[in-house]
Amino acid sequence: MDYKKLDEKDLEYIKQVINDDERILSGEHINEEYSHDELSGTQSYPDVVVKAANAQEISKIMSYAYEHTIPVTPRGAGTGLVGSSVAMEHGIMIDTSLMNQILELDEENLTVTVEPGVLLMELSAFVEEHDFFYPPDPGEKSATIGGNISTNAGGMRAVKYGVTRDYVRGLEVVLPNGSIVEFGGKIVKNSSGYAMKDLMVGSEGTLGIITKAVLKLLPLPKKAISLLIPFKDLNSAIQTVPEIIKSKSIPTAIEFMQREVIEDAEEYLGKKFPDHQADAYLLLKFDGNSAEEIEADYDKVAKLCLSQGALDVLISDTEERDESIWKARGAFLEAIKGSTTYMDEVDVVVPRNKISEMVEYMHNLHHEVDIRIKSFGHAGDGNLHAYILKDDLTDEQWEERMKMAMDKIYQKAAELNGQVSGEHGIGYAKKPYLNESLEEETMNIMRGIKAAFDPKNILNPHKVCQI
């Protein structure tokens, strides 16, 4: 595709629309952070960054860009890990982080309506103040809701409550040609044609720019109790997970963690983890409306874990202890990142009954490839995060060994009927692996959907399924 190179005339038009020079960045005024996302492996600067304040501004800019074939990249907080919000063709970057208002809490319909720049932690705190609960719980709490929707973010509570897609009722979207449309709404059921809203969820900004979202809420559980369960080794811990699932006492979260990652988190946070007796742990959370209501569930699971070889069951029923455990878990990504010179990540998902086989494979892979690999993940839903670390390897060694490790991990996931990404998305960085994992017919359908929304291919080009 031959895109128009941004010039002074284009910049003048943008200035007319925005009418606020502080919300337009160009040239040397573009912060380096706008050139990459959280992992920074994919890097490219936009020609101009526009901090949009409303859907009308985005609509006018998209309409102009569509008419003149100028590439546009939408961006939220930039916390992605696969290059989804990197401006591969330069052009215009639309930053939606200033669109950060919670517009309405509808207690009758159990919904909250927000702009895309609202942070996950802000939304969670707001609804909980009103005794409501927004279950999606990705590890990065400073991510925006628009970004969460764009990647169909999952998180730790997906075992019991599902993922972001399950909580999106309606979306206001600016299409590539500048049209503003609404998909879905406050309705609970909808069999009215194709599921356009669901196409937008997980589309990583390639089909449209989300400018408003109507999200489903639940009543806030009154009580939560965590169990920290040490095992003598990783294999014993992971093989217990399918038994927990089969017990039908489904926890809110089932996380696995290894001692070496916990030590990274301790160093990163400057705080000790509450237990040091084991090499591997399962971390479970149960919630409900009373301690009595959830006691039967966690008691049953605790006994099951002990019968499977757990060394102990530590019940975390105080806020202080609970915070120390979950804060360590939440710091894993940053802690691992801080322990090496550079890293890349794998976000595979496999059927839950294959989780132990996948974890064991990744745990032993570093011997075969001769590269450090650290992993943790959502053991209850089969979503595993593996981080491949560069350390002191030369660039040439890194490229060779990192690619070999990734190829083997994705190949193993495919053998186990898994998928390339459970929650981080495909973006730019993981496209080759998506191409290898899906049939050509499926990829062609995806490209056809992209062409139907964006025949000029100006919106977030080179992402997901695009060549």
From TrEMBL:
Q: Which residues form the FAD-binding PCMH-type domain?
A: 42-220
Q: Looking at the record's lineage, which domain of life comes first?
A: Bacteria
Which EC class heads this enzyme's classification? oxidoreductase
- What InterPro entries does this protein's entry cite? FAD-bd_oxidored_4_C, FAD-bd_PCMH, FAD-bd_PCMH-like_sf, FAD-bd_PCMH_sub1, FAD-bd_PCMH_sub2, FAD-linked_Oxase-like_C, FAD-linked_OxidoTrans_Type4, Oxid_FAD_bind_N
Entry-linked PROSITE patterns: FAD_PCMH
The record, for SUPFAM superfamilies, names: FAD-binding/transporter-associated domain-like, FAD-linked oxidases, C-terminal domain
What cofactors are annotated for this protein?
FAD
Q: What is its EC number?
A: 1.1.99.14
Which keywords, in A-to-Z order, does the entry hold? FAD, Flavoprotein, Oxidoreductase
Presence of keyword Oxidoreductase = yes
Query: Which GO molecular-function terms appear in the entry?
Result: FAD binding; glycolate dehydrogenase activity
Under PANTHER family, the record lists:
GLYCOLATE OXIDASE SUBUNIT GLCD
Q: What is this protein called?
A: Glycolate dehydrogenase, subunit GlcD
Q: Which organism is it from?
A: Anaerostipes rhamnosivorans
Lineage per the UniProt record: Bacteria, Bacillati, Bacillota, Clostridia, Lachnospirales
